[in-house]
Amino acid sequence: MSKLKGLPIGFVGTCLGLATLSNVYNLLGYAWVRHLCMWLAGLAAILGVLKVVLFFPKVKEEYKSGVLAAMYTTITMCAMLFGSYIAGYNLAVGKAIFWAGMLIHMCMILCYTIYHIFMNFKYDFLLPAYFVTYNGLLVSTVAGINMLPPALAIVITYYGIGIYILILIFLIPRIMRKPIPDNFVQTKTVLLAPCSLCFVSYLNFNNVAALKGLFNPIVALLLYVCVLLSLLYILCNTFKFFESGFTPLFGALTFPMAIGTLAGFRAGAFFSNIEAYKTLGAIAVNITGFQILISSTFMCLVFFNFVKMYLNSKKE
């Protein structure tokens, strides 16, 4: 139980990243990778819930940090992703897990807003990690849009796009005025997650008959431009992430890179089928190849460092 108490919440985020990236491997024909990573995400969600229930005082203390508090929502994001996976085998059970994760995530958005925005907000502490809580809800429209009423899917998607723009308006001047502290430098990768979630969620409108009429290729193009700019920003900062030793915050490298890769894969498929955007589609396909390589490297590096951290603590 003491090991569970010390479970880094970044480990849950890493498992979320692995499960997300496994969807890309599944699309490439590697189904076993998806099965393994999805069950790992399910296990991570269970461990995260147990930590919250059994060691609430510890969690309450960690929640005082805006970054750690944001990463606790990766538990519900894992639940939504795992629920969508289980729904392929048992719809009732899968939907129950999916909806539980989504509704709890909504409650966590409310808690985060009250504590870290209304009660304790400091502009200098505004970091990309804020996106995790607010845009994490879009995992529901990325992974399970067909399990949502069309009206709710619309609300969540447009909420995600709106909150992404709103936070970005305040975050960009904050970063330009005062750089992100070195001990939080890995959270820069989070910038790739919200635009990627918005992009994939919006593309999924094409998968729901009731939503196809709302789809606009220009909006999709603008969102993908945001994905590319965010990816470029991350690549320019990559070497800074590894200047210090491994810490649980390295978990922030995983899900954003994974969802960014999925967004790239979907962009390549989508734009390649539109005559006016075929060149962009070809570019997206090739960029995605590099994204798969980089993301897979990050996933393995971070996951095995968490395992190493656990084994070393066990020896002590």
From TrEMBL:
One of its GO terms (molecular function) is monoatomic cation efflux transmembrane transporter activity. It comes from Brachyspira aalborgi. Keywords: Membrane, Transmembrane, Transmembrane helix. The chain crosses the membrane at residues 7-32, 38-56, 68-91, 97-118, 125-145, 151-172, 184-203, 215-236, 248-271, 283-307. This is Transporter. One of its GO terms (cellular component) is plasma membrane. Gene3D superfamilies: Voltage-dependent anion channel (1.50.10.150).
